[in-house]
Every structure is written in structure tokens, then in C-alpha cells.
Amino acid sequence: MHSSLRNHIERVVDLSDQEFGYLLAHFEYADFGKGDLIFQKGEQVVRAYYIVSGLVKLIYHDENVNEHIVSFAMEDWWESDFNAFFNRSTANYTLKCLEATKAYYISIEGYEKICKEIPKIQPFWFQKAIGGFASSQRRILSLLTNSPKVKYEQFLKDYPTLSQRVSKTQIAAYLGVSRETLSRIYS
Amino acid sequence: MHSSLRNHIERVVDLSDQEFGYLLAHFEYADFGKGDLIFQKGEQVVRAYYIVSGLVKLIYHDENVNEHIVSFAMEDWWESDFNAFFNRSTANYTLKCLEATKAYYISIEGYEKICKEIPKIQPFWFQKAIGGFASSQRRILSLLTNSPKVKYEQFLKDYPTLSQRVSKTQIAAYLGVSRETLSRIYS
DNA sequence: GTTGGGTGGTGATTTGGATCACAATATGTC
DNA sequence: GACATATTGTGATCCAAATCACCACCCAAC
């Protein structure tokens, strides 16, 4: 259980048992059912989630209530409306479970406390942020550049496990392609 | 000259004269002409640039040598192939000047040294990273969601000054819309 | 069982935007 | 000044993908 989170962090920075214990004390653990909303657009308190098991999607609803997928996240990934989280503002996105999901979560206060008390963890967060930024840029380029077919192939290549757990409908929404077009690509 | 960089950083963290002096010693200053390539795809040493004046674009060339615009950057913005920079890998993108540009730049070694010697600067970098990530997500949503017209309107709203300095052709490439379509939007 | 929501394949039709083509200004530079 | 080069507008044509419309599943809930 914890070991998942600990291993995850220790891929970047080493922690003593004591340090990890202190860190863990700032997290809480939650269990969500399939279809649950972890947080919704407009909510005040946004937390950052480390997913132990399960699968979630971060979505944006436009004024026509169409749903757009900002990102997926599964085991060993972090997810949140990070803009809202770090700026203590209200959520712009909604986080919904596609599968039953177990996760650790932390508040912004907890996060800041940890950074202050265990400063050596800061590079860990920074690396996550850079990774997220880089993969967003990759996705932007894919959206700008690629045909639906290539977008889909790249998705399969980049996220082989994810692509087997998410419905084609969801993948289509993520790629910005209609469900029908996606279906016709590989048939 | 320096004051620009100093003000920029001090919007997030306060620095003593001594600290800023130490920091500045790790930067170099460069002057580029219009059309110059600051770095190119495939290059080994990638630096991070703080732009004092001028305007640049970060571009990606696909296999058909079509040019796609990852981002623009102007005064008071940072730019680099940050993935290459932080991972010490070769550039995936090319950075080209759209105007004559003056910039401070730093190597990854310099960056790491500063972080170590003046740890209180770390939140500054982190905030930049989060900001970049959030705006990338916004752009992804815009690409997924909006019509060319709305994309353009949002661009004008988000980057009023930038939109007056960049040619329509460049804006069209940034938005993922053809030059002709963009032209027809507002005529 | 049966009802119903989610999923996925596929045909027919429509359309928004790409592409092609050309003209008219700028802008630059030798 | 004159010649090349970017920039923008605009018409005509084309096509890839969206949309609309059905049907066939698969499962989960009652």
C-alpha cells in the first residue's frame, strides 16, 4: 500500500523511514467506486491524488455540456486540477472514476508543509511538473500535426496498458476524433 | 538589463543583492538577429533562455518538413526545449527568432548549482513549470474543443500584445488552422 | 428472464476547412 | 529604383471527418 507511494517517490529522491513516515502522515487514503466524481468543476478544495489502483479521467465540460478529456490517470500516476490545487482556486475540471479507484491524496497545506520540512523532496515534485509539461507539449504537437490514424497509433504506442482499459469512445474523445472515425481506422 | 530578470524572479521570491549577483554570474547574455536559430533539433547542449527583448518561436519539423509551432515567447518569458534541457538530451525542437532578440541563458549545470546554493529559488522554477503545464492544458482543450474562429478569438484575448507582433501565417500555424481559413474568419 | 445503458461497427449524407490558384500589397536589399 | 520575398485576401474545388441513423452486442440491475 504505502510501498507503492514510497517506491514511486524514491525513484527520484531517497527517503529514510522517518522521512517517509512524516510525509505519509500528511496524506489520506480514499476508496472510490466506478463512476464516482472525486471532485467537480467549481469546487473549492482541490487535492492532489496519487493513484494506487484504478483509473480516472480529468474532464472539461464546455458550455454545451460536451465532455472533453484533459487526461487519464491510472496506477502510479498523479492527478488533480493542478492549476486549482497550487493556486488554491476553484476547480475548472472534474475528476471522475472510470474504474473503482484507491488513492492517496494531499491538501495544498500538506504539500507546502512537506516541502518545507523535507526540502529534498522538492526535486521530486519539480520532475513531475516538468514531465507533465513535456507530455502536454507532445500532445499539442500530435493534435496539430497528425491524422486521426497516426494519433491513434501514437496513443497505442505511448499508453499500451491504458489503451486496453479505456473504451474506444473515451479514446476518441481524448484524441479529438469522432467515435465513428476512430472505429473506421482499424476496420 | 539585469533588473528585468531580477524583477521577474522577485515576483516569486525575494533575493538579496548578493544572492542575485551570485545567480546572475551563472547566466550569459546573448544577442540574436531576426531569423537566427538559437538552437536546432538534434543539438546536444540546450540552454534555457530568459528573453529580455524580442520574440522567438519554438518549432517542430515533422518528417515532411512541415513546421509546427510549439510556442512563442517574448519579453519576460522563458523558453527552451525544457525536456531536453532538464534531461540533458538532444533538442527535439528548434528555437528561431522572429525578431532581433536579447536574452540571458543558463546551462543545466548552472541551473543545478543555483538550486543547490540558493534553494529558496526552487519555488520560482516550480511555479514556472506549473504555469507552463497549466497553459499547455488550456491549449489542448482549445485544440480539442474550439472552432477556428473561437481559437483565434481566445488567442487574441490570451495574448493581445503577442497577436499584434506575429504574422497571421504564424498565428494560423500555432492554432492548427490554415492561413486561408484564418483570413476568412475576420473578413 | 427482461429491461436498459454503455459500447462498437458501419452505411449514407453533409460540411467545414484544406488545398490550389492567383492577385495585390508590403518589406527588404543590392 | 528595381527585383526578390514575405504577407494577406479571396475565389473555386475537393475531401476527410463530422454527423446522422441503425443495428448488434454485452452485462448489470431489477
3D structure, described in words:
The structure is a homodimer of 187-residue chains. The first copy, chain A, has helices spanning 2-10, 17-24, 82-87, 108-117, 122-145, 148-158, 160-165, 168-175, 179-185; strands spanning 28-32, 37-39, 48-53, 55-61, 67-74, 78-79, 94-97, 101-106. Chain A has a four-stranded antiparallel β-sheet. A four-stranded antiparallel β-sheet of chain A has the order 2-7-4-5. Chain A has a domain at 2-118: Jelly Rolls, CATH 2.60.120. Chain A is an alpha+beta fold. In chain A, a hairpin with a 5-residue loop joins strand 4 (55-61) and strand 5. Helix content of chain A is 48%, strand content 22%. In chain A, helix 8 packs across helix 9. Chain A is built from nine helices and eight strands. At the A-B interface, strand 5, helix 3 and helix 5 of A face strand 5, helix 3 and helix 5 of B. Chain A binds a DNA duplex (30 and 30 nucleotides) through helix 9.
Provide the fold topology.
2 copies of one chain form a homodimer.
Chain A: H1 2-10, H2 17-24, E1 28-32, E2 37-39, E3 48-53, E4 55-61, E5 67-74, E6 78-79, H3 82-87, E7 94-97, E8 101-106, H4 108-117, H5 122-145, H6 148-158, H7 160-165, H8 168-175, H9 179-185
Antiparallel strand pairs in A: 1-8, 2-7, 3-6, 3-8, 4-5, 4-7
Helix pairs in contact in A: 8-9
The first copy, chain A, binds a DNA duplex (30 and 30 nucleotides) through residues 147-148, 167-169, 177-181, 183-184, 187.
